[in-house]
Amino acid sequence: MAGCQRTHGRWAARGWCGCGCRDGAGRGCRWCEGGRWRWRCRARRRLVSAAVELRGLCIDTAYGRLVGPLDLNLPAGECVGLVGESGSGKSLTTLALLDLLPEGLRASGTLVVDGAPVPLHGKAHAQLRGRHIGWVPQDPLAALHPMRQVGDQLRETLRYAAGLDRRAAQQRALELIGLVRLPDAAVMLRRYPHQLSGGQRQRVLVALALACGPRCCWLTSPHQRWTRTSVRRCWSCSGNCAPSWAWVCCWSATTWARWRGTPTG
């Protein structure tokens, strides 16, 4: 850790070298070995290559085009705001990215993940859903299963999508509930969706999106039922637990977009 102490000692005291690596001794860090800052760091290169890019997205019907062409570059660790009035196509863009468009709508374009192009249809794209692309829907009550406890839904996602065993899934579910700042995690996992408030249900959806650690997370009207204090706390914990993600937020007003992200269109 001597190299870190000479160059940026305040990070070395925390076990960080200051360039994105946890190991101050130089494991994966070229700074400590005499290289350039950040761009010679293997961890930094991994973050840069994890960016998600959307090229030429178009959504069409038999009667004409609804959305597009749309290009989005989503760098890792950044938040992008997609702003538009109701009916402008924000939700359709999200559904097209997840290959969940309703019948009669057709999407075309290319999704680039880790530098590899992936068509918006087919098995390869379906494997990205959840594991590489997360989604927080606008209506949390409709998105959660009304007959199953919150803990059951979280554990099922962790076991079958993230590949954890039963004990690890339970522990991770408790951690996720804590990350989204819900009190009494053990009690919260035993509750049904109708026993939660609207803001609590939306936080549960954020926890479900965090479960598989996707590269990109889309949030549709994420602050609709939250106070300003709750929004700031959630964004703080999201940035801490997923600093290398690309965040896309769909807003109908520019108020939150100006504060948290960059309006795109």
TrEMBL record:
A GO molecular-function annotation: ATP binding
Swiss-Prot/TrEMBL keywords: ATP-binding, Cell inner membrane, Cell membrane, Membrane, Nucleotide-binding, Translocase, Transport
Pfam families referenced in this protein's UniProt entry, alphabetically: ABC_tran
Residues annotated as domain ABC transporter: 69-216
Compartments where located: Membrane
GO cellular component: membrane
Principal subcellular localisation of the protein: membrane
InterPro entries, A to Z: ABC_Ni/Peptide_Import, ABC_transporter-like_ATP-bd, P-loop_NTPase
Family: Belongs to the ABC transporter superfamily.
Name of the protein this chain belongs to: ATP-binding cassette domain-containing protein
Organism for this UniProt entry: Alkalisalibacterium limincola
